Amino acid sequence: MNSREQVFEVLLASLGADDPLGSVVAQAGRICRGSALVVNELGETLRAVGAAPGHLVSEWVLAHVFAGPSPDESQRRSDRESEVRRGQIGRWSLSARVVRIRQRVHTIVIAVHEDTGADGHAGLEAPSSGEDVSLVLDTAVKILRAFEGFESFSMSTRREESARLMRELEAGVAPAREPAKWRTLENFGFEAYAPVRVVRARSAAASAGRPSAAVTGSGTASSRPTSFAAGEQPLTAMKGIVLSDSGVHSSLDEMTALCAEDFPIEEFLTDGTIGAGISESFTVLSQVPEMLRSADVALAAADPGAIVDVEQMRPVEWAAARMSSRFDQRIARRFLERLSQGSDSWLTLTTYLDCAGNIAEAARALNVHENTVRYRLGQIENALGARLADPRAVADVVVALECRRMGNGA
């Protein structure tokens, strides 16, 4: 018979390993002279020690631990996490307890073969009853809960430090203070004076999804996640990023981040993003406010769910995105109103530009005669006071249309 003190001492000592969860589970299995497994709510075996049939244990967990709907979910969860579930698979006797680890529900299973000790280890005396296995499970669950509490506190502190540092950088850092800030950034996994980028992203406050197709630069499709939830990865595990989140208004959240140039920011972002802008790389921390303004311009140019990199923006996109004031909007709107010669002419102009100025191709797209296209374009040129063959005139039209697309000239 193992005393509670003995079990607690052995399991507590195992927390010092590189993999605390795996170490605790392994020691629990050794104490019981059996097998030990950790299974999540999807039936995936995350840790396994011993010879018990893992796939059969996972099926048993799904069927007898996680199954069974209840109208009172909170009560169900409380009962589920305090109860020891028992079962049998062949000659294996199973005992299981539910525990939350990093905000996810898992089940710890101890499987003891009828020939107890066949795959066990020397050490503490093997338990002789299910009550002793329950003692090991109960102690393991309590230790893991305590560890979870300390880790959650550490994560919360880390987030606060990250947000405070990001706000200081956003407000501006004097050149004389840069060495001290780089030393602080080294605590977050940055390499001093190595290139960094800043990111501005907006997301629906209630969004919580997983990867979907995103758009990068000026419209190149990419299978990247979009939005800015860290997902299941805690901030303490991420190196090379500091960030702060703030509510823009009741339905939007905004993220401001500084990250190492090689940090996979596109993978860090998740589904639900309204848009994200990424600055070019730089090494001088006093440039953070300036680079954030450029990231804001990229964000303004982003289509819904898109990630736009400043370095990939075309001049026309940059110019249109910067025309965001009311005065800028009036200029673009008045210019477009001058060109509007009816719905047919407007559609003809946009199609003509989409066809790169090819009249024959535009006529085919509009299903009209080429002379009709020429006539309508002639009306627009009269209103414009210039030929569309003039590159400067076309540039005015394209910038105004880009403003309209972004909503700045509507």
Question: Could you walk me through the main structural features you see in this protein, from its secondary elements to its overall organization?
Answer:
With 410 residues, this protein is α+β, with helices and mostly antiparallel strands. The protein has 14 helices and twelve strands. The chain has a five-stranded antiparallel β-sheet with strand order 2-1-5-4-3, sandwiched between helices. It has a five-stranded mixed β-sheet with strand order 9-10-6-11-12. A two-stranded antiparallel sheet has the order 7-8. Strand 11, helix 8 and strand 12 form a beta-alpha-beta unit. Helix 1 packs antiparallel against helix 2 and helix 11 packs across helix 13. It is elongated, with a radius of gyration of 31 Å. The termini are far apart. About 13% of the residues have low confidence.
